[in-house]
Amino acid sequence: MARKFSSFIIVSLALPVLFSVFLSCGTKTAQQQAQKDRLQWFQDAKFGMFIHWGVYSMLGYHEWVRNLCEIPLSEYQYYVDNFNPVKFNPDEWVDLAKEAGIKYMVITSKHHDGFCIFDSKYTDYDIMHSKYGKDALGMLVNSAKAKNMPLGFYYSIMDWHHPDYIPRRSWEKDRTTEGADLERYIKYMENQLTELVQNYNPAILWFDGEWEHTLKETHSFEIEKMLHKMSPDMLINDRLFKRTPGHGDFGTPENYVPATGVTNPDGTPRLWEACYTMNYNSWGYNRIETEFHSKTQLIRQLIEIVSKGGNLLLNVGPTPEGEIQPEFVARLKGMGKWLQVNGEAIYGTTASVFNKLPFFGRCTVKGNRLYIHVMGWPVDQKLLLPGLKTEVKKVFLLAAPQDSLSFQRQGNDIVIDLPERAPDLDATVIAVDLAGKAEVEPYKTVPAGNGSIELPVYLAEIKSRMGQRAFLEQYYKKTMLTNWQNVHDFPVWEFYTEKPGTFELQASYARGSGGSTFAVKVDDQEIPGVVHGVRSPFYPQNFSLGTVHLKSQQRQTRAGISHQIRHEQ
Ligand code: GLC
Q: Could you give the CA distance from residue 466 to residue 276 in angstroms, rounded to a whole number?
């Protein structure tokens, strides 16, 4: 008899966390301890602001604009000469960051175009030689210092202006490489880095544009040594080392969240910071962009990253006049409001102790307290914390600590009684006080009593490359994967079968206007599907896709979905 296997395509998500994150790793050397202390502020900060700002902002399209639109240096010079951010007020930027609950900032001192927004004695290609004629970076440094805001500098190794930097762009026929000397360019870079550290004392050096050369060619290790000698506490990101695991103080995933956090080659947890744009297409100011992540998504993105042990570095691209556009300001202020109430569940926390939660939610930890961030309020008002063996002392809403919530132990699980409705639709935080350090049995997706396996989307990991668009959303009582527009986004589930068998595969989805194609993969079996029209955009219906055969017993297997959007020509 065929057993039923229901795969919910457009529903819910998971909480993927590496358990190695929580294993302590024997005795620490003095060096490891010193490194830990140096990094502690960064590890606790959780939320930073990235600022991409330079001459490219004037074109209002993309920070790569000179390359994307093949603008010759001679023409780009117009923008260099006329950069004049008359409305730039560094205090306003720092105050906005503070209001947003941001704990550090990182700004582009020099992007790929080579233009420096600081006063450099090693080049005239800097802000002192533009119309503005003032050291904008220095002004921001002073303001950040006065307001106690750690400030880091982004610095691009790749340089499309310096005559000694090679290679040229492939379209740049007017610039020969004759006489160019990369070694001399590296010297220029070392001089500028020294200048930046000695004149402004940044908290972080955030390298980028490293991909065209080897570590040897860019003197990466010598530069690290030089920087640490000048400023022993300064943090350096992994891109100086071409993102080699284990090098640099932190990893830098860009516009995606690593499914299970980040570890060093030896398995120990690695500090990481995911940088994100608030729009979809650019880091620099983009005057034609109309699509932005909502405040709700951004709050949940921060929770997601922090629950995996990382930091969020959220980008703004100020206008050429020096203002931060209203769409960004509104979202940042909204995040700040949420953090004012729930900041305790973010700052200074560590990654989740659960590998999965059986609802749309995430967990962060501080000492013996767990914070459960609930985005999908359970319909039966029962919140199940699976495999939590440690004794629970007290449970309460972080926004209302005076009222305890009742809870019961059911074997290894804890079941919390929730109020009828979610008090905070962005994310409601529930604090769970334990008698000791959390001890948790990993969660496994297994067949129900009748042999069927349900795979709600909150139990999936959402895999993506740069530019993830799909995200989870709670539609009344259902969690669904929504805004699924990118073919590189797909949910992956892991589940265990007890016996071999033939399963009927069902998909549950809503909002199909019909016609698009997709595929579900179960191990090596691929089942194609065509989306049927669904009456309600928010109320999912079940459709049978065919059957799959799972051969061996008690084995781990994965399901993924890929799909294609039919583009009308
Ligand atoms: C990339 C891009 C760059 C952007 C950076 C942010 O490497 O080249 O434009 O500044 O990522 O992480």
A: 10
Give the mutation target among 283, 286, 315 for probing the ligand 1 site: most ligand atoms within 8 A of CB: 283
| Whether residue 210 has its Cβ less than 6 Å from ligand 1 | no
> Which residue from 169, 205, 171 is spatially nearest to 189, judged by alpha carbons?
205
The fraction of the chain above a pLDDT of 90, given in percent, is 71
Counting residues of the chain whose pLDDT is more than 70, the rounded percentage is 90
User: What angle separates helix 90-99 from helix 326-342, to the nearest 10 degrees?
Assistant: 40
Name the token pair of 71.
């603008």
Same fold, 32-244+279-297+311-319 and 361-434: no
Question: Which amino acid type is present at position 328?
Answer: F
147 C-alpha to ligand 1 centroid (Å) = 28
Q: Residue 393 is inside which H or E element, if any?
A: strand 392-397
Predicted pLDDT at 466: 66
Kindly report the CATH number that applies to the domain delimited by 361-434: 2.60.40.1180
Q: How confident is the model at residue 6 (pLDDT cuts 50, 70, 90)?
A: very low
Q: Is the pLDDT of residue 119 over 90?
A: yes
Helix or strand run (H / E) with residue 297: helix 295-307
Angle at which helices 295-307 and 326-342 cross, to 10°: 50
Burial class (CB in 10 A: 0-12, 13-18, 19+), 183: exposed
Query: By mean pLDDT, which of 175-184, 188-197, 427-436, 522-531 is the weakest?
Result: 522-531
What is the assigned CATH class of domain 8-18+446-565?
mainly beta
| Mutate which of 238, 254, 316, 465 for ligand 1 pocket (most atoms within 8 A of beta carbon) | 254
Burial 348-377 (b: 16+ CB within 10 A, else e): ebbbbbbbbbbbbbbbbbeeebbbbbbbbb
Residue 10: predicted pLDDT: 30
Higher pLDDT, 498 or 108: 108
Cα(404)–Cα(431) distance, rounded to whole angstroms?
A: 10
Q: Return the SS3 of 512.
A: coil
Task: Quickly list H helices, 490-566.
Answer: none
92 lines ligand 1 (CB under 6 A): no
Structural domain spans, the chain: 8-18+446-565, 32-244+279-297+311-319, 361-434
User: In this structure, how many other beta carbons lie within 10 angstroms of the beta carbon of residue 394?
Assistant: 13
Helix (H, G, I), strand (E, B) or coil at 427: coil
pLDDT value of residue 29: 61
Cα separation, 287 vs 325, whole angstroms: 10
**pLDDT single digits (tens) 261-310:** 677 777 777 899 999 999 987 999 999 999 899 999 999 999 999 999 99
How much is the pLDDT for 568? 30
- pLDDT of 116 > 50? The answer is yes
Burial (0-12, 13-18, 19+ Cβ within 10 Å), 283: buried
Topology given in CATH for the domain delimited by 32-244+279-297+311-319: TIM Barrel (3.20.20)
